[in-house]
């Protein structure tokens, strides 16, 4: 890991990083910026989005019951 100045706090491992088939080395930064503003409100397309969006979908806590009832209808 690096500190806020970019200096190593701990040396990285000696082995090569794991690389996905598409060449991605890591995607943690794609998950770090998820907020309530990203929550879907369109439940008519949620079943499709669940299986086609790279990282799934973001919903609000009070939408969980509706989400699971939509999935159960498949």
UniProtKB/TrEMBL annotation:
Residues 1-68 form the Protein N-terminal glutamine amidohydrolase alpha beta roll domain. The keyword Hydrolase applies. Pfam families: Nt_Gln_amidase. It catalyses: N-terminal L-glutaminyl-[protein] + H2O = N-terminal L-glutamyl-[protein] + NH4(+). Keywords: Hydrolase. It is an enzyme of class 3 (hydrolase). Its EC number is 3.5.1.122. Transmembrane segments: none annotated. GO terms for molecular function: protein-N-terminal asparagine amidohydrolase activity; protein-N-terminal glutamine amidohydrolase activity. GO terms for cellular component: cytosol; nucleus. PANTHER family: PROTEIN N-TERMINAL GLUTAMINE AMIDOHYDROLASE (PTHR13035). Belongs to the NTAQ1 family. Monomer. Mediates the side-chain deamidation of N-terminal glutamine residues to glutamate, an important step in N-end rule pathway of protein degradation. Conversion of the resulting N-terminal glutamine to glutamate renders the protein susceptible to arginylation, polyubiquitination and degradation as specified by the N-end rule. Does not act on substrates with internal or C-terminal glutamine and does not act on non-glutamine residues in any position. This is Protein N-terminal glutamine amidohydrolase.
